[in-house]
Specification:
There is one protein chain. This protein has 381 residues and is of the alpha/beta class. The protein has three domains: 93 residues, Substrate Binding Domain Of Dnak, Chain:A, Domain 2 (Up-down Bundle); 127 residues, Rossmann fold; 149 residues, Rossmann fold, CATH 3.40.50. 50% of the residues lie in helices and 12% in strands. The chain is built from 14 helices and eight strands. Helix 4 packs parallel to helix 5, helix 6 packs across helix 11 and helix 7 runs parallel beside helix 9. The longest helix is centred in the middle third of the chain and has 27 residues. It is globular and about 60 Å long. The chain starts with 5 loop residues before the first helix and ends with a helix.
């Protein structure tokens, strides 16, 4: 598919990001099996190598009703909305789901899902805390091997080393293209708004990665050809787990704040590290997870070096401030926040924390906070 303008490409990505249901029905209608991949660090390459389509499940914006029977009110909405979608039958066309247990909220989600949704084949994934040590790599490999066996059963065929190596190649190309887009979008905020930036990255969860990369390569080429930007607004880095709320992102755009970089689990954390080349592709996948870092959900033996990473990321990309999108009731993020703010303050980088969840309807307080923050940044600019 060849499109002629940046606007057309951005609109196409937005259509897909805004309607994952239609995209899922498209693949199922083509006779393909789709596997739901819950947050996060799921080895999607195994799904592709089995000839199936990985389909990201990060929940959706809306009201939680049925899932309240399984969760206390103070659980994060990423878990609650994922189960809500399933209880409402919106995941029934999936041929299975892979569900990690990265935190104290995701762990009960796995068991609640298994009990409440028997019609969708369930694949449990437990990552090790000590991921870098040889025994951690072996444990990850054993867990991935279990995922592989389950996927083979659903697909009705074996996953060969060659098919897995090819899937890794496709995914590494996708990661490279998305990293390049993040840089280019930050360099040309007049052409890519915060809402559009999110749509491009979010759509990758609902598309075949080769298809997404082909379109993104076109977009990147056109962004590269643009003249140097003369952006007059503020430049920010966003941090958090989820950053796909159009309402929140529109407020950034309305206040002329450009997202020049991010440390968001749903965005750059998902593609900042390639799978290394190795003769054994299963070991390569395990080594990629072993190399993941700077994440509130991952054990840090060096005692929380992520704040320094965020400070450096902001400096490297010319961000004048940091917007922290704080998922309500996310204990790891809330516990880390004091050290992150302290590091940003010490570096002289203004920051603001915006609490939100996927049921949020009133954005008045967030608008007021972000308008005031934009004034602070513009005054320093």
């Amino acid at each position: 598919m060849t499109m002629s303008t940046i606007g057309e490409l951005l609109d196409h990505f937005d259509v897909i990001a805004s309607n994952p249901k239609a995209q899922l029905e498209k693949y199922v209608g083509e006779g393909k099996k789709a596997i739901g991949c819950f947050p996060y660090y799921v080895p999607e390459e195994l799904v592709r190598a089995a000839g199936m389509v990985p389909f990201g499940i990060w929940g959706a914006e809306g009201t939680i009703n049925a899932a309240k029977e399984y969760f206390a009110p103070f659980y994060c909405t990423i878990a609650q909305m994922g189960l809500e979608l399933a209880l409402n039958g919106k995941l029934n066309k999936l041929s299975g789901v892979i569900m990690p247990s990265m935190c104290d909220t995701l762990r009960p989600l796995t068991q609640n899902f298994r009990a409440a949704i028997p019609q969708v084949p369930f694949i449990f994934l437990a990552h090790p805390q000590n991921r870098r040590a040889p025994y951690g790599v072996e444990y990850t490999k054993s867990q991935y091997s279990n995922v592989k066996k389950n996927l083979e059963s659903i697909a009705g065929k074996a996953i060969s080393d060659n098919s897995l190596k090819e899937a890794i190649r496709v995914y590494n190309e996708s990661r490279a293209a998305r990293r390049k887009f993040v840089k280019l979008a930050g360099q040309h905020p007049e052409s890519v708004s915060p809402v559009q930036r999110s749509a491009v990255l979010k759509s990758a969860y609902f598309m075949d990665k080769a298809e997404h990369t082909a379109l993104l390569t076109q977009l990147n080429a056109q962004l590269e050809a643009l003249p140097k930007s003369d952006w007059k607004g503020a430049k920010i880095l966003i941090s958090g787990i989820l950053a796909d709320s159009k309402n929140l992102l529109q407020i950034l755009g309305d206040n002329h704040m450009a997202v020049v970089a991010d440390d968001v689990a749903q965005q750059s954390r998902a593609f900042r590290l390639d799978v290394p080349e190795a003769d054994d592709p299963m070991t390569a996948l395990a080594l990629q997870f072993a190399g993941q870092d700077y994440d509130v959900l991952l054990y840090d033996p060096e005692l929380n070096k992520r704040p320094e990473y965020v400070v450096n990321l902001a400096k490297e990309n010319g961000a004048q401030g940091v917007v922290i999108l704080m998922m309500q009731f996310c204990d790891p993020e809330e516990m880390e926040y004091p050290s992150l703010k302290q590091a940003l303050d010490k570096a002289g980088i203004p920051s603001v924390s915006i609490g939100f969840d996927q049921q949020m309807r009133d954005f008045g307080q967030a608008r007021t906070q972000l308008q005031a923050f934009a004034d602070v940044l513009n005054a320093k600019h």
